[in-house]
Backbone:
């Protein structure tokens, strides 16, 4: 059974990953408008990764403590949830990159 905390954290990690992917490619484009804006967007993926990692670590710790006193159950919970968070972040990071590439092609009328 999935707890409410886990579901909420997965949504936040996915959104932060999407923002990280979007800002990864948006940084060089924004550099043309204002160098400070470009620097801010270029730092976005690192901030997104840090936020997602800290949130995932906290949720894994809480869920592992609920797993019970058995070491194997705690380890399996920690490894499984870490993998879920890593996949969610990576997947939505790539989705963010793809959305930006699509928006750029549509905006510039590229083939």
Residues:
């Amino acid at each position: 059974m999935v707890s409410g905390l886990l579901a909420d954290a997965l949504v936040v990690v996915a959104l932060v990953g999407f923002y990280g992917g979007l800002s990864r490619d948006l940084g060089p484009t924004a550099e043309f408008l204002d160098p400070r804006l470009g620097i801010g967007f270029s730092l976005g993926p690192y901030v997104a990764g840090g936020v997602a990692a800290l949130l995932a670590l906290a949720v894994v710790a809480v869920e592992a403590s609920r797993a019970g006193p058995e070491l194997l159950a705690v380890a399996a919970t920690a490894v499984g949830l870490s993998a879920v968070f890593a996949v969610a972040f990576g997947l939505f990071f790539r989705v963010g990159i793809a959305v930006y590439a699509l928006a750029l092609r549509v905006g510039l009328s590229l083939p």
